[in-house]
Write a structure and sequence with these properties.
It is built from 3 helices and 22 strands. It is mainly β and 440 residues long. It has a 16-stranded antiparallel barrel with strand order 2-3-4-5-6-7-8-9-10-13-14-18-19-20-21-22. It has a 3-stranded antiparallel beta sheet with strand order 12-11-16, with no helix packed on it. The longest helix is centred in the first third of the chain and has 26 residues.
């Protein structure tokens, strides 16, 4: 714990030390785009861009969460890896990104770039990476430091064909149709399907536009899942493809296989060779010519669990063991915690360009199946859970220069499940969330 606190303090000091320089840069660049060049000379620095997002909100939970040993203040919104704080104000996201496109001088030349995203706020919970201290896994996610890196990788542009990009370092993994960046989402909260989604992968990634602006691919090999420090020697593979045959139609398909399963026992990580975690998502987006979008997103996950032989051979007392990736429930004679999960989300987004500003309306309907009770945060391991989630989000961006990059949102969300697990013993959870999002 002492090492973790020392590391967190050092990271926070670095973050604070960088802030004055970033603020000065922001105050001295033209406000024409969301990402601004921080140097005008035609050299390496001239292509570095600084951008960021700030989001803050107030949430009220009508299910009246009660206090318990894990959440002593009773302010937890059920089924949220992030945006978990109820009945109060919070900073959801404050991220600052420095980046350089390795192909800034064209795809016919070799180039070097990078992406560094420093983030603070509740939304860092999901993509935050393990940095070598076991307390990261031994404590609830909401107790982790609310600051860290979301992206940290070098990029190499290789002039092959349409341009091959090679990234080395930590990437945010895709989370279905939604984004880790709240400014790119239509809603204040994340879909409850995000319980299945990965936070980050660290390794070597290749991306290549087979058909520029139409067909793009991404492939990554990693030895660490949601981690900057290796846990075992079993690789993780990620594949992603995007296809846009027409201006109004877009398809995405992505999958991850092989993320590690392991136990923490007697302050040691015990890796397992049952590397059968699999995550898949696919979505289709249709944009009409009348400011209207329709999206269908399907996601599923399978976890092979923990080998029973690992527990027997190491004489592990299950009462004192922790498995961050799956619940320690006997699912067969040879496996603990084998589980699967699936979810379907449907979005309808519409916006109006009025004289007073841009007004948007978004409806999100989600259906989730958690038959083993091992994925959603309020599910009870070993029991079958089904969830229905309905969300209505209204957004407004005033037509004033001072609010040019600012959006005000209000969101109503309703969750229903087949067990009384919300708040003070309800099968329904209703929340209202007010949010301000600003990009720079």
């Amino acid at each position: 714990m002492k090492n973790k606190k020392l590391y967190s303090l050092k990271l926070f000091i670095v973050f604070l030390a960088c802030m004055p320089f970033m603020i000065i840069a922001l105050l001295n660049v033209p406000k024409k785009t969301y990402a601004h060049k921080i140097c005008k000379k035609n050299n390496f620095l001239s292509h570095i861009k600084l951008s960021g997002v700030f989001a803050t909100s107030y949430t009220y939970n009508f299910a009246h969460p009660i206090a318990d040993s894990q959440y002593p203040k009773g302010n937890y919104n059920g089924n949220y890896n992030d945006d978990f704080k109820a009945n109060g104000f919070t900073v959801n996201e404050l991220d600052i990104t420095l980046s350089k496109n390795p192909f800034s001088k064209g795809r016919n030349k070799f180039g070097i770039g990078f992406t560094l995203t420093m983030d603070t706020g509740e939304s860092i919970q999901h993509p935050e990476s393990y940095m070598g201290n076991l307390s990261y896994y031994l404590e609830p996610a909401y107790k982790r430091p609310l600051y860290g890196f979301r992206n940290l990788f070098l990029s190499f542009g290789i002039p092959i064909g349409n341009g091959l990009k090679v990234d080395v370092g930590m990437h945010n993994s895709p989370i279905g149709f939604e984004s880790h960046n709240l400014a790119k989402n239509w809603e204040n909260t994340y879909s409850i399907i995000d319980s299945i989604e990965l936070g980050s992968l660290t390794g070597i990634a290749l991306s290549y536009p087979i058909i520029p602006k139409k067909l793009k691919t991404f492939f990554q090999v990693s030895y660490v899942y949601q981690s900057m420090v290796p846990i075992n020697s079993y690789p993780t593979y990620e594949f992603y493809i995007s296809y846009k045959p027409l201006k109004i139609i877009n398809f995405h398909e992505g999958m991850v296989y092989g993320a590690e399963n392991f136990l923490i026992y007697d302050n040691n990580i015990i890796p397992d060779n049952l590397n059968k975690y699999f995550y898949n998502y696919m979505d289709a987006e249709y944009k009409t010519l009348h400011c209207l979008d329709f999206v269908l997103d399907y996601e599923m996950g399978i976890n092979g669990g923990i080998n029973n032989s690992i527990i027997q051979n190491d004489n592990i007392n299950l009462n004192n063991a922790v498995s961050p990736n799956t619940a320690l429930i006997k699912s067969s004679d040879s496996t603990y915690g084998r589980s699967h999960f699936s979810g379907l989300a449907f979005y309808v987004h519409h916006y109006d360009l009025l004289n007073i500003g841009r007004f948007s309306q978004t409806v999100r309907e989600v259906r989730v199946w958690d038959p083993n009770g091992m994925w959603e945060s309020v599910s009870v391991p070993g029991e079958a859970f089904n969830y229905f989630d309905s969300t209505l989000t209204l957004g407004f961006r005033p037509n004033m220069n001072i609010f040019k990059h600012t959006q005000f949102r209000v969101e109503l969300e309703n969750q229903i499940t087949n067990h009384k697990v919300f708040g003070d013993g309800k099968s329904t959870q209703n929340t209202i969330n007010f949010m301000v999002v600003r990009t720079f």
